[in-house]
Amino acid sequence: MNFTLSIWRQAASDVQGEMVKYQMTDVTEDTSLLEMLDMLNEELTIKGEEPVAFDSDCREGICGMCSLVVDGRAHGPGKLTTSCQIFMRSFTDGQTIHLEPFRSAALPVIKDLVVDRSSYDRIIQAGGYISAHSGPKPEPNSMPIGYDDVEEAMDAAACIGCAACAAACPNGSAMLFTAAKIGHLGALPQGQPERASRAKSMVKQMDEEGFGACTNYAECQDACPKGISIKFIGRMNKDFAKAMLYDELDPRGDMDAN
Amino acid sequence: MDLDSKIPNTPLQDAWKTHIDSINLVGPKNRPKYEIIVVGSGLAGASAAASLGAMGYNVKLFCFQDSPRRAHSIAAQGGINASKNYRNDGDSTWRLFYDTQKGGDFRGREANVYRLAEVSTQIIDQCVAQGVPLAREYGGNLANRSFGGVLVERTFYARGQTGQQLLLGAYQALEEQVAKGKVKQYPRTEMQDIVTIDGRCRGIVVRDLKTGEISTHDADAVVLATGGYSNVYNRSTNAVNCNVTAAWRAHKRGSLFANPCFVQIHPTCIPVQGDHQSKLTLMSESLRNDGRIWVPRNKGDERRPRDIPEDERYYYLEERYPSFGNLVPRDVASRAAKKVCDDGYGIGSTGYGVYLDFRDAIAKQGKDAIEAKYGNLFDMYKDITAEDPYETPFKIYPAPHYTMGGLWVDYNLMTNIPGLYAIGEANFSDHGANRLGASSLMQCLADGYFVLPKTIGDYLRDIYQQKIDPDHPEFAKRAKEVEDKIDSLMSINGTRTPLSFQKELGDIMWNNCGMSRNETDLKDALERIPKLREEFWNNVKVAGTKDSFNQSLERAGRVADFLEFAELMCKDALERDESCGCHLREEHVHEDGEAKRDDEQYSHVAAWEWKGVEAEHELHKEVLNHDALKPTTRSYK
Residue A53: closest CA among chain B residues belongs to which residue? Predict the structure, then answer.
């Protein structure tokens, strides 16, 4: 198969970028999109040109590192897939394929197709955890958790933190990501003590990072490689609203002996 | 060199408790006075950094990915073992110890393995307390599944994403400590070297992958949790950026490398399709619970698998290993697949593939039940191959997956360099010559949550208030050496890309030091690898500049290390003139083709000491004692 690639090239975060065209020939249909970029980069390197920078690691759709906007859609036109799991058989021979980085105000471009997603780490730091330092813990079966509750927690916990939700959202909102973590931990009994403070602080952090608000476009759900439902955004809003109704003691107050 | 493994001189069952009670601890008031560096943010690194931070130590965590959550532990699918005995089927600490030692073909260190089995149950408790959504039964209790190489059901899981969920648990605990200021994380930062002063490890040199800036960080102890080296084969189930660099550069500063030839080839991966392919995708071993592995009895049978009648199917694992059947350990399953394909029974375009068939399981349990257990794996396979495994069998073939070898460590998980630790896949100690399924997650979290946080105090107490000056000339010297190495890579400007060298090296290793090995092939590899390395240093072409985001340079540095490491791997495979576990020397097999161990001569850990690029490594042997469990011939028949 032959393709024309139109790729976003940007040397550094403070430099103006542009779309640049490349020709690819004799690509087999079982080649993945990223493997085709590997092939392009091999050619560019030999020609003495700068290869295209792009993020990827596991190449099996679970690490969340790959992050391409393919023909205008985060992770491409397919459903429930990451950029690394797109195979060339899903394109038409001779087609032009547009590749851009995930774009959002809170996801600045580092180089070419690589963006900075440290804002996602900071949202987790704001409370996306259950405080439980290492050490002996109660026997898990002493606290039975219903099958459906665990399944629901798992539906939300499947999030890979790729940021496709924010890239797909017309408002540049990271609500699906934030809601997935709040929904995961909130579905479990272990997550209850910090439930209110978690909702408040994570939402606050998300706002501070410059992500937009949700106006129910549901583009995030459509782009999410793990199919996380926007119902979790509803749950988060409920948790957040409830949390705002009362002042609670911060359970993570300064309890360190140090 | 004296290899003191510091194993407590007590019966196995008391060793860990006696050891903790006898070693030094650092009190809570003093912990903030120490700085600990953790390199790598997978299950071992993240759990260690989170635990140490929560204890009060100051921790710096480095990883090359853009976030600690991306480390390749995330891709582990099937599960994590723990001897909870929830199924009331005779499981116990002893049984898990026994299975792990036997699975490792008696090449693991008994005391470490027993400790691993001992703390396994606490890991499950810890993870559930963190909110890891491990699968439950309808009554609300934790569910189990079975895995290869054992006769009990002790594997805990979260759908087919167990590694992801456990890693996110550790990552979240880590981010909690980041928020509290106890851990500072440095993503997109790659370790380039360690700094040793007066024989102790005192820090590291790193490269900021965004800017290319080289900097040094001093610390009281350095923990390497940098994973395995399966990518020496180029294509493996590892993430494309996994590498041996951190471990290798520590090795070149004196840290011994143990059993490098012990590499696990995972039996159930999607077969290679073409040269451009960047990695091999693993299909969880849990599929072997319900799937049946077979090839057509008639060579070159072109019929669709569905059309091949029962009596023309060769269920080779079930026939050869009636008691374990499709659940034999990974090395046995992999070699059996290789053998039927070498004998000409393989399927698929290359003839190197076998069927993994769910027809009978779907007929018996229903499609819904199979979908509930393995749905995401079936979907993943369909996405990659465009074939539907509900309708036609999976095509699978073995691929490099996990490396049992690694940096030599003592019972405290410290390498032979004081102050330098290695945990998780990066060390060698627990899995012997073959790792059982669902045991790597267990070992990483045992090391990170429960072992290292207890043992590291013993060393730290020793160096109390012996602070090193961050301006000590050794830091600048090592940084300069790193810069010089990068400069020389950038200046070669030859005609071949770093990836082309990695591919060529991978082919040599797969063909000559892969699933089965012999003296001729290994000697051939030992001639070819130095030549390839020489060509690399004369003819590699690295794109871009050193002071920018440069993935070409990142890869070049890693390939340079693989080119040195691969030689040691072959040397070790040649030196170990026996078959054991994953390491099959064709010269040493029983009549039925099974591995023939030589306990008289090779019941030891081969720990190699670096002597320079052109010099021969020196071999040190740690003799393994088998006081508790006498080695037997491993049989799964």
Answer: B551
Chain A residues closer than 8 Å to B230 by CB: none
Specify if A92 maps to a domain. Answer: yes
Rg of chain B on CA atoms, in Å: 24
In this predicted structure, the answer to whether residue A132 has a pLDDT above a threshold of 90 is yes
Domain boundaries, chain B: 267-400, 474-599
Cβ–Cβ contact B217 with A under 8 A = no
Q: Are residues A126 and A89 in the same domain?
A: no
Q: What confidence score (pLDDT) does residue A247 get?
A: 66
Given a cut of 70, the residues of chain B with pLDDT beneath it are none
Domain that holds residue A27: 3-114
- Are both A163 and A84 inside the same structural domain? no
Please name every residue paired with B218 in a beta bridge, in sequence order, or none if there are none.
B203
Q: pLDDT tens digit string along B210-264?
A: 999 999 999 999 999 999 999 999 999 999 999 999 999 999 999 999 999 999 9
Q: Decide which of 3.10.170.10, 3.60.20.10, 1.20.120.1200, 3.90.700.10 is the CATH code for B267-400.
A: 3.90.700.10
pLDDT at B595: 87
Query: Does any domain span residue A249?
Result: no
Domains: count for chain A: 2
Contact A133 B54 (CB under 8 A): yes
Indicate if B330 belongs to the active site. yes
- Given A81, A127, A185, which is nearest B131 (Cβ)? A185
Q: How far apart are CA B498 and CA B271, in angstroms?
A: 24
Strand order in the sheet with B313-314: B263-269, B394-403, B354-357, B292-296, B313-314
The pTM (predicted TM-score) of the whole model is 0.96
pLDDT category, A252, cuts 50, 70, 90? low
Residue contact B187–A118, C-beta within 8 A: yes
CATH number of the structural domain spanning residue A225 = 1.10.1060.10
Q: Is residue A139 part of a domain?
A: no
Q: Which residue of B has its CA nearest to A52?
A: B551
Query: Is the CB of B65 less than 8 angstroms away from the CB of A30?
Result: no
Same domain for A191 and A74: no
Can you give the pLDDT at residue A248? 60
Residue A86 lies in a domain: yes
Q: What is the pLDDT of residues B326-383, one digit of tens each?
A: 998 888 899 999 999 999 999 998 899 999 999 999 999 999 999 988 888 898 899 8
Mutate to test the interface with A, among B175, B238, B384, B555 (most CBs of A within 10 A): B175
Name residues 544-583 of chain B within 8 A of A (Cβ). Answer: 544, 548-549, 551-552
**Which one-letter DSSP state was computed for residue B39?**
E
* Chain A contact present for B30, CB below 8 A: no
Q: Which of A85, A78, A91, A33 is nearest to A64 (CA)?
A: A85
- Please indicate, yes or no, whether residues A200 and A109 belong to a single structural domain of this protein: no
Residues A107 and A199 in one domain: no
Same domain, A98 and A126: no
CATH of the domain at A58: 3.10.20.30
Amino acid A258: pLDDT: 46
C-alpha to C-alpha distance for B49 and B39, rounded to whole angstroms: 9
* Measured distance CA(B263)–CA(A148) in Å, rounded: 40
Nearest by CB to A59, from B65, B279, B385: name it: B279
Report how many Cβ contacts below 8 Å link chain A to chain B.
232
- In one-letter notation, the amino acid at residue A205 is Q
- Which strands form B618-623's sheet, in the order they lie side by side? B406-407, B257-258, B604-609, B618-623
- CA-based nearest distance A35→chain B, Å: 6
- What sign does the dihedral B232-B235-B238-B240 (CA atoms) show? positive
* Burial of residue B195, with CB atoms counted within 10 A of its CB: 0-12 exposed, 13-18 middle, 19 or more buried: buried
Per CB-CB distance under 8 Å, the chain A contacts of B173 are 129, 132-134
Query: Under an 8 A CB cutoff, do B139 and A120 touch?
Result: no
To the nearest whole Å, the CA of B496 is away from the closest chain A CA by 7
Does domain B474-599 bear CATH number 1.10.10.60? no
| pLDDT mean over A5-32 | 96
